[in-house]
Structure formats: C-alpha cells, structure tokens
Request: fold
Amino acid sequence: MKLPVLNEQPILKVKDVNKLYGINRGCQAIGFDLYPGEVLGIVGESGSGKSTLLKCLSGECQPDSGDIIFNALSGEVLNLYEIGEAKRRLLMRSEFGIVKQNPRDGLRLSVSAGANIGERLMAVGERHYGGIRSTASSWLQQVEIDAERIDDFPQSFSGGMQQRLQIARVLVTKPRLVMMDEPTGGLDVSVQARLLDMIRTLVANLNLSVVIVTHDLAVARLLCHRLMVMQKSRVIESGLTDQILDDPQHPYTQLLVSSVLTP
Amino acid sequence: MDEPYNFAYLDEQTKRSIRRGLLKAVAIPGYQVPFAGREMPMPYGWGTGGVQVTASILGKDDTLKVIDQGADDTTNAVSIRQFFEKTAKIKTTTKTDKATIIQTRHRIPEQSLTRDQIVVFQVPVPDPLRFIEASETESRKMHALEEYGVMHVKLYEDISHLGHIATTYAYPAMVNDRYVMDPSPIPKFDNPKMNMSEALFLFGAGREKRLYAIPPYTSVNSLDFDDHPFEIQQWDDVCEICASAESFLDEVIIDDEGTRMFVCSDSYFCEQQKIKNEQCQPIVLVSES
Reply:
C-alpha cells in the first residue's frame, strides 16, 4: 500500500462539525484532517451518523455548526458552506467526486454509458464530441468495462458494472477528493473483491484523497489508511487501520471487530 | 354595456400584470418569468399563453397576423384571428410586412422582420431542462447557476446513436450568453432568425404560466459541439408551387399511393414568390449545340 506524503497541507480540514436530527441522531463534534493521497474510512453501525457526516463533507447537507475547509487546486482555502452555493456546486462537479451506494442514484439511466461518463466533462465546459467520446472509452477500459458497450444503457449492465460505471463517471473530471458511501453494498463477494482491487489501483494511480463510509470492516482493512469509528453520532475511536482493527481500545470497537464472521 | 367583452377579452388589471411580467422578461433575456395566467376560452395546448401575451400588448391601431405551422389558413390560426377580430375589433392581415404583431405557432415567417414588429410565440414546455430534470426547484437552481452541462448530454446521445444531432425542432439555444432557452417547437431552421433580430420576440406558456423574451439585437446561439456544429435543415427539392429553394418545406402526402410533394410552410411567402415568378418569366437558357 502506497503511503501518503504527510509533509503537505491537508486537503480537507473538518472542525467541530455538528448536524443533529435529534438527541445523538446525526453527527456531532467531528474533527479531523485529511491529507492528499490519504484514504479515510468511517465505520460504524447503521444509524451511527456515517452518511450524515459524508453528506456534510460533500456539500450536500449544511451542518448546524462547524467548519469544513477545503484546500482547492487553485490554492484557495475555501470554507465549504461560506463560499455560496454557485461556487460550492462548481466544486462538487469538478474537484469533488461523490459515489453513491446505489449506482442507480448516481447514474442517468436513460442515457448511454458514454453520455454518463461525458456528462461531467460537458458540465465543466468540454465541447468536443470526439474528445468526450475517446475519454469516455478510455475510462470504460480503466474500470474494466468493454469499450464496445459505450452506447449501451446502464440498465443493461450488471450491478457491479453499474457501480464501476458510476466510478468512471465520477473520476473522469479528475476530482481530488472522492467520497464513497458503501461502494460495495449489495454486490456479491467476488464482484466486491474485483471492485475493491480496482478502487485501490485507481486511488494509488491518481493520488486521490478518499473518504469512504462502510460498515464492512474487510473493506476498511483493504482500502483505508486510517479509520474513524462512529457510534451514536460521535467518533469514539480513530487511528491507523491496523491499529484499530488489531488492537481496539473502545468497548464498542472491540465488539464491532469481534462480530466479524470469518468463514 | 354595449360591448360584450373588454378590449381583447382580458380585463385591464390582468393585462397590466402580464405587461409587467413581459417588461421583466425583456430586461432579463431568456429568463422565465412566472405570471398569473388566466383561464382562456380555449383548451390548453391551443395557444392560451400566446393569446394572453397578444391580448395584453394589443393596441387599437395594431394589425395582427396569426400563423400556425407557417400558414394563415389553418384551424388554430383562423380561430385565434377571429377571436381577436371579435373581442378587440382590430385589423388583421395575412401579409407579414403589414403586421405589427404576429402570433405564431411552430414557425417564424420567412420574410425578415423589422423593428416595428413583435412576434408572439405559443409555448407548450418553456423549460429546456424539463426533460432532463423533472424537479422545478432544481431546474430553476440550474438556470440560476448556469449549470447547463446536461443540455449537451441530449446532443451527445443523438450523435452517438444516429451519427448527427437529430433534434430538429425546439432546438435549445443560449440567449445573450446567459440563459438556455426553449425556442418553442419551431424547426431549428428558424433558430438563426432569432439571433440579432430587429424584432422583439415574446414567448407565453399558458399551462406552465411562464413568460420569456428575446429583445431586439440579442445574441441567440444554438447549442452544439465544436466538431459537430449546428446546422439547419436542407432539402433536395424546391417548393412545387413557388419553386423557392430558400424556405422551409413541408412534405405533404397527396394520395393513397404515397406520392408526395414539397411546399413552403410559410403560405404568405409562397404566395409572394409565386406572384414574383409570374411577373418575370424565367429566362430559359438554351445551350448552343
């Protein structure tokens, strides 16, 4: 596993973020730094606030309080919820990439695979059909989909292929920060393994910073440099992945690690 | 009361409110302005939006021309013309150059328009983003933030499946480099006529209650790709009545055997061309053998 370079500025700084829907429902008192090239996993049970936190980070849900500060490619330091919606949405379709758990939420099902990949390119101003098409075709190959299927509709793809197509659609504009919500949810184990392998390769090749939400500790072990364990809206333990999984300190983390089934 | 209707059917307050909306539409070219549309004595889809716009800008000295698919003698055109003859007692005409207001459905007249003319369009679906984004809240936000990348997705799909941009009518265009607009279901043949036009274009959508406008001398650019530029329709045939090779031709099937003929869709233009042809007999060149 390629180790991140730690002498750089963090790409994302999260300071005391709170977003509560009720007492201990949502996420509260969250703070961390994410460095370029680093993969951070957020694990925890259903309802622990993982997805709420991810939505706050990705610009989809304004937190009640706290700051999310992004170090943009231009060198600007942007406070995600103070820059205005126009700039935030521009950021979301250029430097951010958001991969949904259900590929059908992240894809446009009524247009072809090529158009799905091309959409973000066109959204940032690409106007050359031939260029868009060759980029789409090379991305299909990168996510291990036959380039001949460029004009097929996503409905005709299997679940795993749809998820890979979604990843291609997100990565095509070369985002610097990718957020994934349970990217392997609902896939069978062999498809999961190939997808994880592919994500790991892409992350390393493109030097992506990734925040990945999962309840699957095996996924966390494979992909993440660092883990945050959440329970009842708070981070209860955080540290290097191996450290958390091999030597959990908090009783809940111990329970979580010991509940993993080994065949 | 002597007159059964107020001038041009609508009451004065309604006409004022629509004019206020139109002023805003002219001030922000291509922006869709909501307005309090009224029930009109005709079904939605027959031009209730256009009729309300015409009613609110009509003055006693105006001359009105109404066309449907380019022709003055089609049902929709005839009934709307009669509606205003009856309710406003104004002059009507079929002559494009004599009209001060032209209400239209599906065409812009072939003859170039002047600064003294206003064209009123009947619009079924005012938002070009509607077929891609079903939510009104979201599509308004996309307009506000100029998020028009998805507009090209449709064009991309056309090229990838058919080899060329197959959108032939209601072809989306960028107005004044700011708002993407649905030019109503006119053929894309007519899109270039809107660019830097001398006349004022007003659009009214009755069912969706939206107004928008293109003021005179405003840029209107049809969306396209660098390597697949915007092109208008072309025909191998000429009009069988007037022999025009420049106008938009309708293909008409004339018998049960599938025999077809091509004729101008703009009936007044066709008439004029025919008169011109009769005045000067075509010179037949006989090549020396």
User: Anything to note?
Assistant: Residues 91 and 184 of chain A are 25 Å apart (CA to CA). Strands of chain A lie at 12-22, 25-34, 39-44, 65-71, 77-79, 96-99, 177-181, 209-214, 226-231, 234-240.
